[in-house]
């Protein structure tokens, strides 16, 4: 099929690219407001100092680093899912692959901002490059994340290339001139020749393999930031694989929720069916089982060996953090196992609900890895100031968290306004090849 | 006096001349700039108290000026041939907290921050409680130095671990790296910032302090380079803390000077959490034959300080009894 011949799908998605409904505009304004609120909180933190956060000398990292782990996690999940499904040539992946790629790149742009919020002197941030020491895991992270951002951008771009060409070649597309220009520019002389196709396929294969590898490395490096220290709750050999599994697990859940939302808004019932939810649900189930297994081994060995400092940590996890621990490490594992495991419950609605539970549970799981550990150092915290003893996130930290979620929503909204959320070329063209 | 080439060194000419016998730096201050103009003797005599209690008169010119806190570059080098070590005698500590006061005053840090902290520890329910002063351990295998992404914190040849707050980006990785909670963060604009803003910055004192950076005990690098004891050592009324050079195998608490290896061997000196492999430069002597009952260190405290130790088993028991 010639690319200049507008296909059924392109015609179907063109209106979404051309205009925004009133509700859509309201939604965008809402997201922008959330982001602005976050910026206000950031300004407060910069002008008044880190004292406006709940972080103090014992709990030096709080919600920010939890968000960092969380956003990076869902990003790697997107990379792993889209990369793996691409290499396996699984046919059912086609309608959801762009959502996974969007998720990868958008959360990858937001995640690192949170680690910067932990940094006391943002004016010295460039020192990470100028004076970077390769001995420090933070330098590993800087290298890994920047490689990841480049790799994921390339992968996303390769996936978008043919759709840009289609949008360029669709004469009836009623969008602003600059957007037409942009599509033309981004489509870089794509003529859909067999040679171009061969090359594109080859590069996409290579990049898919690369993003899978990079994603595993990046998330392991992130885990090592914690596990190279001597802190009782962090100094663990399984943190690398544990974090990778947890990341993909949470990301799969986020992908399911995104699928559900787009299915509703864009009326994609014919393209994204129950099959997709069940298939991704099964991926989530397998990952959930692994996650449960890792969590269990991690806490079992700490508890059974009952080293003094481990015992201290376990005792506050089962005391002050009891309900959070129960929710994140029991419900977060069992709910998807049951929902996807039982054929009766294997519906779109239930799978999506289970995914929401997983998202919240995994966020809390990271919170329980970061905060209680820092609250139980080797030397007991002896302080009269309550804020120094117990960590509580302040409005600044929560507002910045909401700002991050707002910007993820905003990125997705803008992304799906610029290109169709369904990869047209993949869905329509490759069917013929297969 | 020799002509100074170095910018940092020439600044010293105008700065204070500390005297070994003076109690405080300000009391013994003499401006060197006046004396440095004379070619040989100044003719001005200064009365000093010698070690054996005699009052002696010396010419001002003969008094060596104090070395001033080094700049950022120089402070990365240690004092050649030195390797500092500290010994803390837990049998003598009664939580008088003079070490903390003198440290805070000397380093212009707020009451919110303690570079040396005094913990009330009790290893298990049946074992004896004891007061446990904790400075920075200046480890020989410091994790804080390993994890720093920008080389802001460093280990010198003389064993001292310092922080260059002009290099520090405030990521706090060193704080999670240190298993002894020895590091503190400037969460807000330091109270002393305004008053100290004209003092040339030195990592040896960490004055002036900077918001958004990490601070910690510096083993009083500015004092020891002049052959003086750290502030916590000289401030302690009980002589709890000994300081010295492991190469000379000697430590002193200001009144008594002992052979380091002998002291450690006689009193079974140990290092805290040896199992962590950080190899601290600070040794502890167990609280055997203690000079004061433990409760002495608690009862004399004001309410706010008492609050700190309220949750320890020892204080709970103490409060129950009374």
Description:
The complex is a heterodimer of chains A (434) and B (322). With 434 residues, chain A is mainly alpha-helical. Helix content of chain A is 74%, strand content 0%. In chain A, helix 3 packs antiparallel against helix 8. The two termini of chain A are 14 Å apart. Chain B has 322 residues and is α+β, with helices and mostly antiparallel strands. In chain B, strand 1 (45-49) and strand 2 (55-59) form a beta hairpin. Classes of the chains: A mainly alpha (434), B alpha+beta (322). Chains A and B meet through helix 6 of A and strand 4, helix 4, helix 5, strand 8 and helix 11 of B.
Portion of residues within helices of chain B: 10-25%
What CATH architecture of the largest domain in chain B do you see?
2-Layer Sandwich
Helicity of chain A, in percent? over 70%
Structural class of chain B: alpha+beta
**What is the largest interface, and how many residues per chain?**
A-B, 43 and 48 residues
CATH level-4 homologous superfamily of chain A = Formate dehydrogenase/DMSO reductase domain
Low-confidence stretches of chain A: 1-5
Q: Into which percentage range does the β-strand content of chain B fall?
A: 15-25%
- SSE order of chain A, one letter for each helix or strand: HHHHHHHHHHHHHHHH
Distance between the termini of chain B: 66 Å
Low-confidence runs of chain B (pLDDT<50, min 5 residues)?
1-38
Q: Kindly name the structural category of chain A.
A: mainly alpha
What kind of assembly state do the chains in view correspond to? Answer: heterodimer
How many DSSP E strands of chain B? 13
- Stated plainly, the CATH topology of the largest domain in chain B is called Alpha-Beta Plaits
Average pLDDT of chain B, rounded to a whole number, is 86
In angstroms, what is the radius of gyration of chain A?
A: 23 Å
Count, helices of chain A: 16
Number of helices of chain B: 12
